[in-house]
Amino acid sequence: MNLRNYILVTGAYWGFTLTDGALRMLVLLHFFNLGYAPVTLAFLFLLYEFFGIVTNLLGGWIASRMGLRVTLVSGLALQVVALGMLALLNPAWSELASVTWVMISQALSGIAKDLTKMSSKSAIKVLVPADAKGTLFKWVAVLTGSKNALKGAGFFVGSFLLATAGFSGALWIMAGALALVWLGSWASLPREIGKAKAKAGWRDLLSKSREINVLCVARFFLFGARDIWFVVGVPVFLRGVLGWSFAQVGAFMAFWVIGYGIVQGAAPAILRGRAPAGGTATAIAFALAAISAAIPLGLLVGLPPATVIIGGLALFGAIFALNSAVHSYLILDYTDGDKVALNVGFYYMANAGGRLVGCLLSGLLYQFAELAGCLWGAFVFAVAAAVVALKLPRDALHAEKLAHATIKADGE
Q1: Cβ proximity of 389 and 218 under 8 Å
Q2: Positive or negative, the Cα torsion across 278, 284, 286, 289?
Q3: 330, 198 contact by CB (below 8 A)
Q4: Max CA-CA distance within the chain?
Q5: pLDDT at residue number 406
Q6: Is 1.20.1250.20 the CATH number for 3-189+205-411?
Q7: Per-domain boundaries in the chain
């Protein structure tokens, strides 16, 4: 494994992720404090998620032709532009003008996020030897877990900067720091990393194996289950109903994502080092559905809301992290190195689709059914993720044969 390139890719992804988490909390808390309704808050993030779908589909194709360095440094540069654009928001503008400006800047940030994420995850498949499945699972878990821990730290950083430097000041600070990461990545990463030997055609964008298609549908519902409560529901509930401060809301969301990242990074150890298969994803998804139902039921029977929300969502995060780590390994196991950018891009397109739907439902369900509605929505999506995962290969041997068969077919 090329450790130097892995460190460079991971460092760039870490830098981006810190600003991405901070930006999410900055926008949510700033506009909630201005009196924006839950549905309006959800709309602020819709283009962010929508352009994630488009970016993952086309970004994988671009990366296979031009290399992962191009897409990675482009993502970092776009995020710098998005942060600077948002910092120029004029408080005197009308709500319509402000929402439009934020949605456009968030669209750029969504493109940036998914270019960076797709590039970073794809690079691992290229850097790890093809026969080292245990090593692949380990390094995927490390990258994904550390990313989510840093995103959680970003939530805390965002709320802290909002309280100390103000909305515009916080954004300029982050833009300057990320510009340094961009310069370092542009100067250090090799040009040929991740470039496919054979040029991908347009039909390769949607031409996937059955296993990859099933996994992508399961991924759609898994991330929808999270974002139905995560994007608007819980932060607004903590701030508006329980009366928590910006710092408290940011700290809770930060510790939730950090804990989720720690569990995700520890997934190989939790699963005793065994490379997981479809059966693992199915069992964990059903456990997630059970937890999703237990939280609103606890609220319904009158248990203390703060205890139920904090404890229930901590458990939700741990199980969700394991499920996500297994998915992230399987998409790389189901593909070969030459098509990794295309298939990972397609996979994260489904991921972004689930976040888009979850984001919209988070605002709608909270506005019309409050937090309980968001949590029951999460239950429905978690059940759907588990049912779909039943159609994945049941054992690791099947997945391994599939990967070898794909490599052989590509060589003929």
Answers
A1: yes
A2: negative
A3: no
A4: 64
A5: 35
A6: yes
A7: 3-189+205-411
The residue type at 123? A
CA distance 30 to 308: 27
Q: Percentage of residues in the chain with pLDDT exceeding 90?
A: 28
pTM: 0.72
Each residue's pLDDT tens digit, 332-358? 888 765 566 677 778 888 888 898 899
Q: What is the pLDDT of residues 112-160, one digit of tens each?
A: 988 887 777 677 666 666 555 566 667 777 777 777 778 888 888 888 8
Select from 329, 202, 400, 344 the least CA-distant residue to 408. 400
Tokens linked to 305: 């809301």
Task: Identify whether the C-beta of residue 215 lies closer than 8 Å to the C-beta of residue 347.
Answer: yes
**Contacts with 147 (C-beta within 8 Å, 6 or more apart), sequence order:** 13, 14, 17, 117, 120, 261
pLDDT attached to residue 187: 85
CA distance 158 to 254: 10
Helix (H, G, I), strand (E, B) or coil at 206: coil
Name residue 33's amino acid.
Answer: N
